[in-house]
Design a protein that fits this description.
The complex is a heterotrimer of chains A (about 350), B (about 300) and C (about 250). By secondary structure, chain A is an all-alpha fold. Chain A has 13 helices and 2 strands. Chain A has one domain (about 70-330): MetI-like (MetI-like fold, Orthogonal Bundle). A two-stranded antiparallel sheet of chain A has the order 1-2. Chain B has one domain: MetI-like (MetI-like fold). Chain B contains 10 helices and no strands. The longest helix of chain B is centred in the N-terminal third of the chain and has 43 residues, at about 15-55. Chain B is globular and about 65 Å long. Chain B starts with 13 loop residues before the first helix and ends in a 7-residue tail after the last helix. Chain C has a single domain (about 5-245), classed as Rossmann fold (3-Layer(aba) Sandwich). Chain C is about 35% helix and about 25% strand. Chain C has helices at about 45-50, 80-85, 100-110, 115-130, 135, 150-165, 180-195, 205-215, 230-235, 240-245; strands spanning about 5-15, 15-25, 30-35, 60-70, 70, 85-90, 170-175, 200-205, 215-220, 225-230. In chain C, the strands form 2 sheets. Chain C has a 6-stranded mixed sheet, sandwiched between helices. A 4-stranded antiparallel sheet of chain C has the order 2-1-4-5, covered by helices on one side. Classes of the chains: A mainly alpha (about 350), B mainly alpha (about 300), C alpha/beta (about 250). Chains in contact: A-B, A-C, B-C.
Chain lengths: ~350, ~300, ~250
């Protein structure tokens, strides 16, 4: 072993004048400790395997989802995503109502949440007094971490009655002519789903936008102010212009979260697989149908249809999240981003 | 760059200046307004959750199983225990693998491309809907075993913990300054020992709170448990049987028609919220103190 | 008890940057050797090549031979054993922040598996005395953390930590540059006392310091070793004009 040869060579040294010819016990011990290269290699190998587990998880999910949806892929092919009939009894499955529900509720939530989230982010970074900022930032982080089912619980007992009694009648009266707010007023439905989703994605969009805005260097702000700009002009030209890629990324991340949100949506969307023009009508989302009907799926084709919806959901959210991360990374330069 | 800023022509006319000042005030009002519009209801929601939860909690909540329908009283003890068991399984799986993965990309990521890919994939995985994890574990474990089980639920939650813990561990390890690692290497300490006994130990407060955060996040997950752990009305400690979980029961109770079960749901929600508040506060506290205890 | 260091044709790179070009010299045992030169001349890189710390940088690369007491340190694949024989003190003090003073000094032994409590106690006391820190901390060895000491004390703690593993060579990369003048003086005294027992290589940008503590001095410029000779000769009658320019303050 290399270590042994070293010791032999060492004892062949000509000792320096006045040197201690017998090495101390400490020195002897350390010389005989040996090379740790085996332990080092084993350790880094073990760590590597664990790091690779991340890829293993992705592959596992893909494999399971694809093999689980084989039946419906073979039977329906691409028409699965364009059919609007969901008829488990007769074995006829079309995923369009769920795609519609997921997309519409998510877009609705973005329409509500994005302007507000960006406004909050701007306030917190550019206008907020220091004593308030810490509390509000902490509170925002809390809200982002509250479980979906808790939001759902609140939605069922507070939001739905609120919508049913005050908001929906108002909307029907004023905007009912458009057909978007029409029909029976159950309280549950697409609008409720959009609202609860907007509440849930707002903290995330806001936190991420704040980080992106904070990453804009002060020199940019100062340059604009030095030209005599008002504060709003400084924000518009010095900050938002530089951060807009990252803000788009934050919005897309919020979209990704909205697309996959399951429990709260399931509790308020109405669970009816139909495409309706009115936002007050019950609907169904991709995640909700899986949550509701998976354990009850009575035959293999039914289960396969649900798994295929899960596969579609997986692929879409991966693409959306990857896109969002790339955009946010471009602005914050790869610094680890906290808060999902 | 300042060169590509297009300023409105600075005319000497007062009207232009007045408009710009007005726009500034309008923007400020909009920002403040949206903050109030957002924060006030959110604070109200939060307060309502705490109020409803607090009025629902009593000692029985933590010690008794649910009473049969129609009877008053009872608790969610079995759900709390069930969540505990699920989280124990999940942590046993997720914490070591996650920390090890984080160690790899922070300390051995010499091949920076691999580390970047792991990091990116972990972030993307964090955004995947948790119900998808449930489906994957269902086909992987529940189908071959032909029954729901706590094991399946624990594995689903564990899979969710791995990307989160990997990222937070990496973040915390990277905060340990280079010169501390160099001191260990310069002493002739083996690399693995230096990573474990010096770097990891220095970063341990942060790493532990990162695990806590992942724990709290996964504790509130319902979707992946719907068809893996499945839920259980009775007291169960078996790993191979379906098992109750707090968020799962909250879901079932919320949608039920019984007032008593609604009360239990609010109580359970408060327990989850307290867990979240404690972990988020802890993470902020540790992050604020910095990774180096007592370092100048 | 120190050993001689012989360097032949040493070249070092940071990525594509050829930081050290064909360095050859012989550092005598039981003496202090100073390395001087302007910023970026490669003297720190050189010292880090002597205990294979340069390669800890992912883009660091070394060719050539370095013999520490007859042993070619690059001949074997694992640098860990080499580093146990060569102690290093860094520019900014870096005690382990989670450890007490005692644990810091004992770390080189403990982390390699040494368990004998009695010997550890003796080693810690001896090392702290050699580093002239014992009197100041002897009552609080296990209670105070290493990071709670002052800058000068921390650096002496790092010296004690390096001495505890009984190395044959001590490498010091600008050990006093981050310290106040009083601490600097204490460290220089230390070097004076230690050099009879160890081979010391000290990198410094302070020429007066080199003149005070070292018997031999090497002048580095742009990655090359320009001149290496007895200290008094370098500073009073240098052979190379570039050395003379540096000494007299024309640059750097």
């Amino acid at each position: 072993m290399a270590g042994q040869a070293d010791v032999n060579r060492r004892t062949g040294d000509v000792p320096a004048p006045g040197a201690d010819p017998s090495p101390s016990p400490v020195r002897v011990f350390l010389l005989n400790c040996g090379s740790s290269s085996l332990a080092d290699r084993a350790f880094s190998g073990l760590m590597l395997v664990c790091a690779l587990s991340i890829f293993a998880i992705v592959i596992l999910i893909l494999v399971e989802l694809i093999s689980g949806s084989k039946l419906t892929i073979q039977k329906f092919g691409m028409s699965f995503f364009f059919g609007s009939a969901w008829d488990p009894v007769n074995g006829n499955f079309g995923a369009l109502p769920f795609i519609y529900g997921t997309v519409v509720s998510s877009i609705l939530s973005l329409i509500i949440a994005v302007p507000l989230a960006v406004g909050v982010a701007i306030f917190l970074t550019e206008m907020c007094p220091d004593f308030l900022r810490g509390f509000l930032a902490f509170f925002t982080e809390l809200l982002a971490a509250i479980p979906s089912v808790v939001y759902g619980l609140w939605a069922v007992f507070v939001l739905i009655p609120l919508l049913r009694q005050y908001v929906n009648p108002f909307l029907i009266k004023t905007l009912g002519w458009s057909g978007i707010f029409a029909g029976p007023n159950y309280g549950i439905g697409m609008l409720a789903a959009g609202v609860i989703l907007s509440i849930m994605i707002l903290p995330i969009i806001s936190s991420l936008t704040r980080e992106v805005i904070s990453a804009v260097p002060h020199s940019q702000r100062e340059a604009v102010l030095a030209l005599g700009a008002t504060r709003w002009e400084m924000i518009r030209m010095g900050v938002l212009r530089n951060a807009r890629i990252g803000i788009v990324g934050a919005v897309i991340l919020g979209l990704g979260r909205a697309l996959g949100e399951t429990m709260a949506v399931t509790m308020v969307i109405g669970n009816r697989p139909e495409i309706a023009r009115s936002l007050l009508a019950p609907g169904y989302s991709m995640a909700s149908v899986i949550a509701n009907e998976f354990s009850e799926a009575s035959d293999a084709l039914y289960l396969s249809a649900l798994i295929e919806i899960g596969l579609a959901l997986f692929i879409v959210t991966v693409i959306v999240n990857a896109l969002a991360r790339v955009l946010v990374w471009a602005v914050t330069r790869g610094a680890p981003v906290r808060g999902t | 760059m300042a060169s590509n800023i297009v300023m409105p022509p600075l005319r000497a006319r007062a009207s232009n200046r007045v408009w710009r000042v007005f726009a500034d005030h309008l923007a400020t009002t909009a920002a403040v307004g949206s903050t109030i519009l957002v924060m006030a209801p959110l604070i109200a929601i939060f307060g309502y959750l705490i109020y409803k939860g607090a009025t629902s909690l009593n000692l029985a909540f933590f010690t008794q199983v649910p009473k049969p329908v129609g009877e008053v009283g009872g608790g969610m003890a079995n759900s709390i225990l069930g969540s505990g068991i699920l989280l124990a399984i999940a942590s046993l799986m997720g914490v070591p693998i996650g920390i090890a993965g984080g160690i790899y990309i922070a300390e051995f990521g010499r091949n920076r491309r691999l580390a970047n890919m792991v990091r990116f994939t972990a972030d993307v995985l964090n955004g995947v809907p948790s119900i998808v994890m449930g489906i994957a574990v269902y086909t992987l474990i529940v189908v071959p075993q032909k029954h729901f089980s706590a094991l399946a639920g624990g594995v689903a939650l564990g899979i969710m913990m791995i990307p989160t813990i990997t990222r937070t561990t990496e973040e915390m390890l990277l905060m340990v300054p280079l010169n501390v690692r160099e001191a260990a290497l310069g002493l002739g300490v083996p690399n693995w020992r230096s990573v474990v006994s010096i770097t990891l130990r220095t970063a341990s407060p942060g790493v532990i709170t990162g695990c806590m955060l992942a724990f709290a996040r996964v504790a509130g997950e319902t979707a992946p448990l719907l068809f893996t752990a499945f839920g259980n009305q009775f007291w169960s400690t078996s790993v191979n049987q379906p098992i109750a979980a707090l968020p799962l029961q909250i879901y079932v109770y919320a949608l039920s028609p019984y007032d008593e079960w609604h009360r239990l749901a609010w109580g359970g929600a408060l327990v989850l919220i307290v867990l979240i508040v404690v972990s988020v506060a802890l993470v902020r506290y540790v992050a604020g103190r910095g990774v180096l205890k007592g370092a100048s | 008890m120190g050993v001689e260091i012989e360097v032949s044709d040493l070249n070092a790179w940071y990525g594509t940057n050829h930081t050290l070009q064909s360095i050859s010299l012989r550092i005598p045992a039981n003496h202090a050797t100073a390395l001087i030169g302007p910023s970026g001349c490669g003297k720190s890189t050189f010292v880090r090549c002597l205990n294979r710390m340069h390669e800890t940088n992912p883009i660091g690369r070394v060719t050539g031979t370095v013999r520490v007491g007859q042993v070619d340190i690059y001949a074997q694949s694992s640098p860990v054993e080499i580093r146990r024989r060569i102690g290093m003190v860094f520019q900014r003090p870096n005690p382990f922040p989670t450890m007490s003073i005692y644990d810091n000094v004992a770390s080189g032994l403990r982390l390699n598996g040494y368990r004998n409590r009695k010997v550890l106690d003796e080693v810690v006391e001896r090392s702290l005395q050699q580093a002239a820190l014992w009197e100041e901390v002897k009552d609080e060895l296990k209670k105070k953390s290493g990071a709670s000491l002052s800058g000068g004390q921390q650096q002496r703690l790092c010296i004690a930590r390096a001495l505890a593993v009984d190395p044959e060579v001590m490498l010091m990369d600008e050990p006093a540059s981050a310290l106040d003048p009083v601490s600097t003086a204490k460290i220089e005294d230390l070097i004076f006392q230690l050099k009879s027992q160890y081979t010391i290589v000290i990198v410094t940008h302070n020429m007066q310091q080199a003149a005070r503590v070292a018997e031999n001095t090497g002048f580095f410029l742009n990655g090359k070793l320009v001149e290496f000779d007895a200290t008094h000769k370098i500073f009073t009658n240098p052979t190379d004009k570039r050395t003379e320019d540096y000494i007299t303050g024309r640059f750097g």
